[in-house]
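anyone else get weird line breaks when pasting these?? whatever heres mine. first is seq + tokens for prot A
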Amino acid sequence: MVESRIYMKNQKVFAGIILLGFGFYFYLSQNHLELFKEYITWPSLFIIVGIAFLVQGYSGKNYEAILPGVIFTGFGLHFHVVHKLSIWPNNMGIFLLIISLGFLLQYQKTRNGLFQGMLFLIISIILLFYDKVIGTLGLLQNRVNTIWKYSPVALIVIGVILLFKKK
């Protein structure tokens, strides 16, 4: 009985934030306010949904909502700043970094997801800094390119091993 009340409260908080956020979004969109013009775009809707998940996750103690909250908020922020900040990376690494942050924040509350968070973090760092590492290594470029060429096969093999390995 108590669990169902908590669940219903969590759903009301999530729905309330979604309705408030979308209401403000559409109000600003319809009234063409210059101050908010550049923020009335589809990435803002991602941020609204993400914030709703994060509030549900942290205030409603529904910690499984943290991961989608970070993903939606992070992707929305990424799409807002990617063309505004020249130093902001625009490759797959940034998406994996956002996902890893979500797993790590969820791990902080649930003690689940550390492996996934660290795995995505390592892959994102490799992707974000690949060009700089290759440029720095110079002499080893042929070897690194060979490793990079076959890395998808290695990832597939490791994935199959993890799927079928007995505990």
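and prot B, same format (seq, then tokens)
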Amino acid sequence: MNLTNIRGVKELLNKYNTVTKKSFGQNFLISPSIPVKIAAASLNATTTETEANNEAGVIEIGAGVGTLSQELCKLYKKVVAVELDRTLEPILNEVFENTHNFKVIFADILKTDIKSLTESEFNGYKQINICANLPYYITTPTITYLLESGVKFNTITVMIQKEVASRLCAEAGSEDYGSITLFVNYYGEIKKLFNVPPSNFYPPPKVTSSVIQILPYERPRATPEDEKLMFKVIRAAFEQRRKTLVNALASAFGDIDKSRIAGIVEEITGNANIRGEMLNLEKFAAISNIISRENQNKL
């Protein structure tokens, strides 16, 4: 079934008396080429198509009417879609009536035990990936949930709002660089693949989208002694971007003398007047490690 024809998609929705729902952030892909590119990109670059069919499974977040799902089914041994909108069930049943490697679970991805899902659906698979055209309103919570899940995904390839992609992929010192950038970089290497104009969707969103890919690390690239403390330091640094890092941390850690904070920052960065946006993840980890040790010495 051709799902890249806007007339065909409208007819399919009308056939089952359903409509796109703004509350679910539904913008269905109708481009012939973009779903192909996303599905292909979701595979590890070192994995051939034949190997993928034999060994790889993918969880798709939000199947919609199945445009991207169809392309994933061509490349993966098994596709499991987690879809929130149950009114799409008859559409997906029709579209995938003769597709043996597609399964849909109607649930909220943020309320789904992703670890149990992967264990039950992909036991024995050598590669498990995530692929999605993510609704904009759940982008950050979904990425956060996936990275913190403890599941060793091979790739996470998602289409999100271009502005959010810029923040996730930002370099230290840039305007877009922030705490979410560092959070994602803690868990994996992230890269922007390509942009997708609004004309590729029905209905067209008001903004341009971008496809990004996260390649999760076997182990986080930084080694904080206290992970929660490191992220507290990072959040403090960016909550008041105009402040120097010393002043920002002094506000967040009132139990530590400001002169001592200045000493820590200068020890790690060589500049007591530096702003947080100039630091990479490793330097934030180093600062938090000193604070952690000093807190322990007070006990």
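btw re prot B: Strands lie at 28-29, 56-61, 78-83, 102-106, 127-133, 156-161, 188-196, 201-202, 209-216. The chain has a mean pLDDT of 94.
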